[in-house]
Amino acid sequence: MERAPQQSSDSILATLSVDLLIQILDRVADSRDRKSWRQVCRGFLHAEALRRRSLRVLRLEALQGLLRRYAACLERLDLSACPSLDDHALAAALAAGAGLWRLRSINLSRASGVGWRGLAALAKVCPHLEAVDLSHCVGVGDREAASLAAAAGLRDLWLDKCLGLTDVGLAKVAVGCPALEMLGIKWCLEISDIGIELLAKKCQNLRVLDISYLKITNRSLQFVSSLRKLEDLSMVGCSHINDEGLQFLNNGSNSLQSVDVSRCENVTSSGIISVIEGHKYLQDLNIGDCFPELAPLFLSKLNYLRDSLTVLKLDGFQVFAPSLKIIGLNCRNLVEIGLSKCKWVTDEGVSELVAGCVNLTTIDLTCCHLLTNKALVAIGDKCKNLTCLQLESCKLITDNGLDCIGTCCSNLEEIDLTDCTMTNAAMKYLSRCSELTVLKLGLCDKVSDEGLVHIASNCKKLRVLDLYRCFEVTDDGLAAIATGCKRIKNLNLCYCTRITDLGLKHLSCLEDLHDLELRGVHCVTSLGITAIANGCQHLTELDLKHCHLVDDAGLFALGQYTKNLRQANLSYCQVSSMGLCNLLGSLKCLQDVKLVHLTQVPVEGFESALRASGGRLKKLKLLTGLRHLLSPGLIQMLQARGCRIRWVDKPLNLVP
Amino acid sequence: MFKASAKMDFKLRRPLEASSNASSSMMSEISRNLKPGLPFIPCDSTNICYGARQEQSFSEFPPPQVTQCHGLYAREQKTETKNQLEPSSAVNDLVMDWNPRLMLSNLSFLEQKIHQVQDIVRSIISQEGRANELAAQQQLVTADLTYIIIQLISTAGTLLPNIKNALLSATPVAQTGVVANLPVNASQKHHEVLSVELAKASEYDELIKDLNSGGEGDELIKCLNNSVAEVSESIPIEDHDIKDYDDGMDGENLPPGSYEVLQLEKEEILAPHTHFCLICGKGFKRDANLRMHMRGHGDEYKTAAALAKPSKVASSEPAIIRRYSCPFVGCKRNKEHKKFQPLKTILCVKNHYKRSHCDKSYTCSRCKTKKFSVIADLKTHEKHCGRDKWICSCGTTFSRKDKLFGHVALFQGHTPAIPMDDAKVSGMSDHVQVGETTNGMVANMGYNFSGNASDDAQSLDIKDVDDGQGYFSPMNFDACNFGGLDEFPRSAYDVSESPFSFLSTGTCSFIPRNGEN
């Protein structure tokens, strides 16, 4: 074991060897604590580097240095936050640790600049590569797949929305990576039955397969059914698949544990029944939005899955009380049920359901308009382990209903009360749930500062707070939140028009804040924005649409401090060319900007600001009028670098 | 490059508009000159049609004793019997191509014949008014004239092979004049008769057309040919079992003798046109086209009767099952073959004969290897040629994706090749050579991972972009094949149309003038 360099006698390193440091480090779990650890001294940093197994890179410019430090031990590398990554940068980064790589997993999601050369380099220098995520790299096609296929040990591969991928590319992967266990080819619209057939023949070890939204037919399922180890099959929105195809799955293998056939329009109960009959260990069944009515036979067949079934999603069905009663009787071990948009769900039905399924932890009752407090009382009474409750648009529910939930379900982590008629009393009841992490109160316009004070008093773990159009909320409420819920990550304050700079100043102590939406908060000025930029340095998304008072000063602050900002909506702000140029020029991570109706910015301002962005932008929203005013060369350059420009034609509407 | 080839492709497939397109007719002339071996000398088809083998039989033939329109039939049957009596002369005739003495005797016989007809016509003029006799005599005249025409044509036809050999350089127009004159003169004589019998004009038209149309004309030919075929019995038959991909009548199992076997002659089979205008000599593939054409020669051809399709049912006979024999002795489709399998239609005969017994003169312009003797086959092939875009890493090509994937599924380590249509890669496809194929794609890919791989885009140096797959891409395939397409002359498949276009311009104006002289 390498000794730490000689230090003066009073140094802590004199007594602690590197292996001891590593032992200590293993007990430091939190990422912020680890960051502090790294900053102690060089010795600590070195120890951390030896111990580090995974790395998520937030800024591309740091990539090379980071890899030089961590290359030797790193097993998981996440580059999904660096969408401007290209072949050159990837190859250069990989060169830093050439010969040493023990990398097993790499996430290149949304890195649309990466092409086959980069992937070929990756496959070459990382012989132990097991997992690659290329989802949403819309440019990835057959050539890239062929490069990846050189990584013969690949087990997990995610290619969602790789629009260029065809059967040929899939065949390359199937032949090159026979050990494949997990494969996602969702939205790869070019893939057909022929490709799936070859895949099933070559990769017999597949456990997880996502073929959602493909234009495949029953023939594919015939071959998929030959995968004896298949556990998880997702085929959302495969409209060419019908019951006949699902019957192929009933082949006695009993391997499937999870099936998602939601939005498959041509699937009916008889198809689902054949799946149930063929796989008695099925745990997860999602048949949402397939066919409108639940056949009695299907309900009785659920009895087959009495012991195994834990997740059942029936979104969009006409589910009546008797059906829910049968489900309650047949699926005793149900942990999660989805009844979103099941408009005939009644209090009686929910009572029958929870009477049987006492282990339920997640209940989705979105848009079940008929539900009243009685249903919540039943849930609170039976489901003591409830962690997630979705009640969006259940307008008959009142504060009293939540009393029971707050009292009985102390493990509640997530609740969605969007568009419910809640008041501060409900917040008081909810504040009993100390585990609460997600609270959505959109359109609950009676919730005011008092309610937020209740929440802040006990819900220390809150991460997501949605106060969309809660007009009553003022700076004081935010002050309470900022002091009580330090870990807030997402905060939606859209159209909370009483909030001012002072409120934002309170919020600036939220170090974890990533996503802040201030749309239509028209009292906010650059002072507030500056405070936020100063305090919340992890900010990645910021919506300032219709913040008419925000000017260049705010943008300067953002440009200087929020180096991780990736999405910004500056539409209707009173910014000038200077501020815009500064912002686009200095933020290296910025990839998605909306710049509609910036009345103070002339065409030249747009021109120079967009040039200053240096081709990092991936998404851009501009007024249609600019299309012919901006120089064609600039537009070409942006598009060549992978930027999608959305031209909108909106009237200048100053009042939101 | 691809664009260019596609354009060319379109051009090649476009039907040739002969008369209107000067450049194309020029092209076709060039192509004709390039292919002197092909029997496409304008107008000779008329002559070929009616064979050249009848001289011996008709020289001793008595003046026709016919009473009705079907008389032609009866006479021909007699011809058959005659021939059977004198097999040796017919065989001799088969062997010998052209005999000037024979022709002279033919011509003098024709002269006699014409005199006979003149006599009959004179007698008709003298004894006016007796209707029943008139009708009989008129039919006699018609039959005789028809006979004369046929003989003229066949006599001229004997010249054909010699013309082909000797007068290759001579202008086709001159030939056209010489040969086509004969029927025109004959028809003018008819017109003399016609002037007397205006009332019967339409009936006459019918007859002329019958001569040309597939209906009775065909029968005529067949009967003539039958005689020859029967004579050739004495020739020892070789048993060539040529693999026959014709659709003749496989599967049909007619007992021998239950159908009539007809045999067309080689020249007749190969003739581009089977229907000819007796006024201007223009040839047509279909009699319907000829009827349309005839309208231009006067109002008498515009009547409903003249434009009507000549009905075969009119012959009142119960439909005789008719099958065809290939004139190639030894062929399985030849009626002398032990396991004779007849051909169903004239089209079958044509296709069979061309495919089995003719040179494959149409070469695919894409692959330049596949050759065909039937244009339709070439066109079918060209639809798929070069479309083998599904290629395996082992170099095997497939026209269908599922076939390739079936192959890949079967063999360990084989993968489908990726087409190099990638924009960044296509630029390098120029120096790709088909043939030098390497399978390992990753092995060839050299990455430059030296220390300078820092800020310079050049540092990402792909040493060898032309990996194995590049060689198999259809883009390259096309590019290689079509690189020089522009220099490639308009290929052979316009040839059959070319004499046609030539006729339409040259002969129409020329012949009538000759007739007047």
Keywords:
heterodimer; A: 656 residues; alpha/beta; 24-stranded parallel sheet; globular; B: 517 residues; mainly alpha; two-stranded parallel sheet; two-stranded antiparallel sheet; 22 helices; 8 strands; 50% helix; disordered N terminus; disordered C terminus
Description:
The complex is a heterodimer of chains A (656) and B (517). Chain A is α/β, with parallel strands linked by helices and 656 residues long. Chain A has 26 helices and 24 strands. Chain A has a 24-stranded parallel β-sheet, with no helix packed on it. Chain A is globular and about 70 Å long. Chain B has 517 residues and is mainly α. Helix content of chain B is 50%, strand content 4%. Chain B contains 22 helices and 8 strands. Chain B has helices at residues 2-13, 22-34, 44-49, 55-59, 71-85, 87-95, 100-126, 131-158, 160-166, 172-196, 201-212, 215-231, 266-270, 287-294, 304-307, 346-357, 375-384, 401-410, 423-426, 468-471, 474-482, 498-516, and strands at residues 260-263, 275-276, 283-284, 322-325, 362-363, 371-372, 390-391, 397-398. In chain B, the strands form 4 sheets. A two-stranded parallel sheet of chain B has the order 1-4. In chain B, strands 2-3 form a two-stranded antiparallel sheet. A two-stranded antiparallel ribbon of chain B has the order 5-6. In chain B, a hairpin with a 6-residue loop joins strand 2 and strand 3 (283-284). Chain B is elongated, with a radius of gyration of 30 Å. Chain A binds chain B through residues 87-88, 91-92, 94-95, 98, 117, 120-121, 123-125, 141-143, 146-147, 149-150, 167-169, 171-172, 175-176, 194-195, 197-198, 201-202, and chain B through 401-402, 405, 408-409, 413-419, 422, 425, 441-442, 445, 447, 449, 451, 453-454, 457, 459-460, 462, 469.
